[in-house]
Amino acid sequence: IDTMEREKYIISAEFIFKNRNFYYGAGGGFMCKNLNFKYDTENILDYSKYNDYSSWFPLILKFSYLNRDYICLKNIDNYNRKEDIPIGWTISGNIGYNLYNYHNDNMIDNVLYGVNFSSAIMKLGYAGLSLDFQRKYDYCIFDAKARYFFPNNSEVKYRFGFGIDYIALRVDNMDRQLIADGRSGFRGFPAYYQVGTPDENQHFLKMSAQFRLFPDYELLTIRPGFTIFADFGGAQWKDYSNLRNRYSDINTHNNWGWMCDFGISIQLCSTRSSTGNINRFDISYNPQTKTIGFTIDSGRALNFFLPMTISPFLNE
Q1: For 3-298, which CATH class?
Q2: pLDDT at 314
Q3: Closest by Cα among 232, 188, 227 to 206
Q4: Nearest to 222 by CA among 68, 110, 57, 80
Q5: Which of 126, 185, 253, 295 is deepest in the core (most CB within 10 A)?
């Protein structure tokens, strides 16, 4: 695809009711999306069914149940700062009806649904699990996250941590793609190193292991931390070399196969910044490129704590 212009307009309303730990809600809305494609008909997929104008009118019913508790622990995602860490479990779901109208008056109606489950426990170590399965408008997605670290003693100045992220995406156009690179947690890899294939099914997997050391030292409101890390996974780990000659847009992203990197990192966190705002300096080695990379970035490549948001409902 040479160019793709997208404009989206959303008008929606939602009502939420609370009864102890249960939440109920209903909502509806209207969304318009303008798509303009320019492509080579001999080398690109057939996008004839995607017209310049599309609209949705979803009606959705929602429910949620929350059972939460909090513990006071040093948030190791932001060195040595004591915070209330949420634990417990939540479950949310929605179901609705969606009317999809293309510009050529080709009506497609879909049932929308989504289920989200998250749980976190804290005994000898923190263990968290999050599952999210949704069908929205023009795509289906399954998202699974798992976290574990130990020990959880706030007086200990080191942590061992592990994380797994998996995403499966089914989409009927190339407007949504899964990307594995330095921005998505594979430290040292260049941007857009691995891009999901231009078929209907895409997969993303990242497994990370870390050893964090954070000395109880502060200099001008800056607290340092040190990490030894390793990452493994990819956006698409199959061999799609037969597609390279057919689709010109992926000739620049033909890095198929498993991705791996390992290295050391230095983090600097200001005691005056909000949670999660850190500066990260990574030195990593990548067997694929056989190079040593140096990365300067902000935020965590792997957050030990799973987010358990106050909002009980799924987005959109």
Answers
A1: mainly beta
A2: 44
A3: 232
A4: 80
A5: 126
List the structure tokens of 32.
């318009």
pLDDT in tens, 141-189: 899 999 999 988 877 888 999 999 999 988 766 667 888 888 888 887 8
Mean pLDDT of 5-17: 67
Smallest CA-to-CA distance from 31 within 56, 54, 49 is with 56
103-127 pLDDT per residue, tens: 445 555 667 778 888 889 888 889 9
- Whether the link from the prior residue into 151 is cis, omega within 30° of 0, is yes
Alpha-carbon distance 234 to 179, whole Å? 8
Please count the CA atoms within 13 angstroms of the CA of 126 that sit on its side-chain side: 30
Does residue 182 sit in helix, strand or coil? helix
Question: 45 falls in which pLDDT band (50, 70, 90)?
Answer: very low
Find the mean pLDDT for residues 250-269.
78
Query: Which candidate, 297, 314, 34, 308, places its Cα nearest to that of 183?
Result: 297
CB 313 within 8 A of CB 134: no
Burial class (CB in 10 A: 0-12, 13-18, 19+), 220: exposed
In the predicted model, what is the mean pLDDT of the chain?
A: 75
Do the beta carbons of residue 145 and residue 129 sit within 8 Å?
yes
Domain boundaries, the chain: 3-298
Per-range mean pLDDT, top range of 25-39, 87-101, 204-218: 204-218
Q: What is the DSSP string of 210-262?
A: EEEE--S--BTTEEEEEEEEEEEEES--S--GGGTTT-GGGGGG---S-EEEE
